[in-house]
């Protein structure tokens, strides 16, 4: 258990020195915070809100020196207090460890630490001396003791992050790539992104922006436009990026017998193949459809993601020496046993969730005329745009759902000629999981939204088609009003039907878009890969290893329906685990990943605004095609921003870097991450 001997956190002093161990309470919010890696206890933790010492014998002075040494290295140098002050503090702490504390030795440090905290211009400078200031004010005796008993550097490590980095599933160093834009080096900016995944231009168009939701700039005016900046550098440097990738850039080429199979060419599979190829492995990608990209290719309409942009990035796999095998559906054309027999030493399952879920209401029948599951509908839209296959609509269309797939369906239905398009969602607008920008775009284009409304019955009528065949056809959907109930354990309000509120929405086409699932025929019990009750591949959250040795899984088939950035993040993690599995027979311990789990689980990263001097600068919004015009065609809606706009937007970043350090009992295994 993490018992605080002494420390200060959020201004609250904890001093349990002299108490017996059983008398010391657990650290608030740090329950279970005891070991860093197996058998290696965490002795102290230093962060942007203070510090905790968990074990006797910790040299607080050395712990703060390690912390400030990293802070000084991370200073961008653009303001004097942080650039100069952190360096002076670091050197002063080192001198105290070396020479001891003389008369007035700490007085100057008190003044300097407070000056750095109060006058720096970025979050790093404003927070990096918080722990030191607390120690100087409340625990000077422990600093003096540390100077007296210093006997070498303690074991530990430091980690630098920011709210936007931790919010990003791929942990892209967002402030760094924004800094490069501000410094006029977009190619360097793109390089930061490509360290994590190959689909930068794609992500710059369709990312759901977890990073912007965490952006501290939003507490001042509006979050930084991180997504449009990503698209800017990807588009601006596309000609250069295409020339970067070839087999020649791979230095540590592995022998041919260590080949890896990736099953599924969606974002997770492409990302995994990309990182494996960069690590020198021979990689073959097996894809059920006749093109790469997964749902990004066939499920995201061209008005959001032009397919030539996507193809340029999925082609990176071939430019690095990988191979695609199309028309290879797992469980039908290829099997796990067959891949093993072909000599593949590891397999990454990136199957996606290509099947839609049914509404489960009275009258539902997938053979009904006018009934089109959302995923099937978007596949028809894709074929229409790419090959001019007929997918026209007329009359009234009702789409059921509240996610991005539902938004894609309603906006595509308008473009295919529907006279009216209605969206039915059982909860409120605020509860919709869809990207708020997609909701606003659909509203501008004329979609009619029905919130707190739920379908209960499909209404059909027998009709004779042009060939004289009698068919049951959708002519409407009966819905009822819903009202919100009490919040559940997660804080989400349930909804219940309002008695007597039933009504009918007449329609010619009904499109359910309420969820997706993995192809149930892809895996059988004989494959040795467990699937849970929700139809997801069972895999270890850390390693992505499945229940079959040498087989790993990521993306939607393991996560359930997720986002493109989440899928690509699992591709990177899967490639790392496969590399370790083939080289060492196990997955190694990654210290930076452990620090990320600490930040995720114990939330030391403050959610509060750090008082930095900021001039209000509202974000640049990309221009869009006029709604009345764009609803008639599938051309890309959002226009690129200019270099001037990109520079302006990059200048709004507050560089909210934070430093976290741990002191441990033993040395931490080092590993690139």
TrEMBL record:
Alphabetized InterPro entries for the sequence: DPD_II, FAD/NAD-bd_sf, FAD/NAD-binding_dom, Helical_ferredxn, NADH-UbQ_OxRdtase_51kDa_CS, Nuop51_4Fe4S-bd, Nuop51_4Fe4S-bd_sf
Limits of the NADH-ubiquinone oxidoreductase 51kDa subunit iron-sulphur binding domain: 61-106
Gene3D superfamilies: Alpha-helical ferredoxin, FAD/NAD(P)-binding domain
GO MF terms held by the record: 4 iron, 4 sulfur cluster binding; FMN binding; NADH dehydrogenase (ubiquinone) activity; oxidoreductase activity
Superkingdom of origin organism: Bacteria
Annotated TM spans: none
Name of the protein this chain belongs to: Pyridine nucleotide-disulfide oxidoreductase
Native organism: Nitratidesulfovibrio vulgaris (strain ATCC 29579 / DSM 644 / CCUG 34227 / NCIMB 8303 / VKM B-1760 / Hildenborough) (Desulfovibrio vulgaris)
Organism lineage: Bacteria, Pseudomonadati, Thermodesulfobacteriota, Desulfovibrionia, Desulfovibrionales
């Amino acid at each position: 258990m993490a018992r605080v001997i002494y420390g200060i956190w959020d201004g609250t002093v904890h001093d349990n020195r002299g108490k017996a161990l059983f008398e010391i309470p657990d650290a608030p919010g740090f329950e279970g915070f005891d070991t860093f890696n197996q058998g290696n206890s965490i002795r102290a933790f230093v962060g942007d809100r203070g510090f905790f010492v968990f074990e006797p014998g910790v040299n607080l002075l050395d712990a703060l020196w390690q912390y400030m040494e990293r802070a000084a290295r991370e200073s961008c140098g653009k303001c004097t207090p942080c650039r100069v002050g952190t360096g002076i503090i670091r050197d002063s702490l080192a001198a105290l460890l070396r020479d001891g504390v003389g008369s007035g030795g700490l007085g100057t440090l008190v003044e300097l630490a407070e000056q750095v905290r109060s006058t720096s211009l970025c979050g790093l400078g404003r927070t990096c001396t918080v722990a030191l200031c607390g120690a100087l004010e409340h625990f000077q005796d422990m600093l003096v003791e540390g100077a007296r008993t210093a006997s070498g550097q303690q074991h530990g490590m430091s980690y630098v992050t920011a709210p936007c980095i931790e919010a990003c599933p791929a942990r892209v160093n967002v402030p760094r790539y924004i800094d490069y834009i501000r410094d006029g080096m977009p190619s360097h900016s793109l390089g930061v992104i490509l360290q994590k995944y190959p689909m930068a231009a794609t992500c710059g168009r369709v990312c759901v922006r977890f990073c912007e939701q965490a952006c501290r700039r939003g507490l001042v005016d509006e979050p930084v436009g991180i997504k449009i900046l990503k698209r800017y550098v990807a588009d601006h440097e596309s000609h250069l990026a295409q020339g970067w990738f070839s087999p020649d850039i791979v230095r540590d080429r592995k022998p041919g017998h260590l080949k890896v199979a990736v099953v599924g060419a969606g974002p997770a599979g492409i990302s995994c193949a990309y990182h494996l190829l960069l690590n020198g492995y021979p990689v073959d990608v097996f894809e059920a459809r006749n093109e790469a990209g997964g749902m990004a290719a066939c499920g995201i309409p061209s008005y959001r993601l032009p397919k030539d942009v996507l193809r340029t990035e999925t082609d990176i796999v071939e430019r690095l020496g990988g191979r695609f095998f199309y028309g290879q559906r797992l469980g039908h054309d290829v099997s796990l046993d067959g891949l093993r027999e072909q000599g593949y030493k590891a397999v990454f399952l990136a199957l996606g969730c290509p099947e839609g879920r049914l509404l489960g209401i009275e009258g539902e029948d997938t053979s009904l005329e006018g009934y089109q599951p959302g995923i099937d509908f978007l596949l028809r839209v894709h074929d229409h745009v790419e090959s001019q296959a007929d997918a026209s609509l007329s009359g009234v269309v009702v789409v059921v759902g509240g996610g991005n797939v539902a938004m894609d369906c309603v906006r595509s239905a308008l473009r295919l000629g529907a006279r009216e398009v209605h969206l039915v969602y059982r909860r409120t607008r605020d509860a919709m999981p869809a990207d708020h920008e997609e909701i606003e775009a659909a509203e501008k284009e004329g979609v009619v939204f029905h919130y707190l409304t739920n379908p209960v019955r499909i209404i059909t009528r027998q009709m004779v088609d042009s060939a004289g065949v009698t068919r049951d056809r959708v002519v409407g959907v009966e819905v009822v009003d819903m009202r919100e109930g009490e919040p559940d354990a997660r804080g989400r309000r349930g909804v219940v039907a309002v008695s007597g509120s039933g009504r009918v929405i007449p329609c010619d086409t009904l499109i359910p878009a309420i969820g997706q699932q993995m192809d149930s025929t892809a895996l059988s019990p004989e494959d040795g890969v467990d699937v849970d009750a929700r139809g997801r591949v069972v895999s270890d959250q850390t390693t992505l290893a499945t229940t079959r040795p040498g087989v790993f899984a990521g993306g939607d088939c393991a996560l359930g329906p997720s986002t493109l950035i989440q899928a690509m993040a699992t591709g990177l993690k899967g490639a790392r685990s496969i590399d370790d599995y083939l080289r060492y027979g196990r997955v190694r311990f990654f210290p930076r990943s452990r620090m990320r789990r600490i930040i995720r689980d114990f939330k030391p990263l403050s959610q509060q605004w750090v008082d930095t001097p900021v001039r209000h600068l509202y974000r640049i919004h990309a221009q869009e095609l006029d709604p009345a015009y764009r609803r008639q065609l599938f051309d890309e809606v959002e226009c690129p921003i200019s270099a001037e706009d990109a520079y302006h937007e990059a200048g709004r970043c507050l560089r909210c870097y934070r430093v976290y350090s741990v002191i441990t009992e033993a040395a931490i295994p080092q590993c690139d991450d």
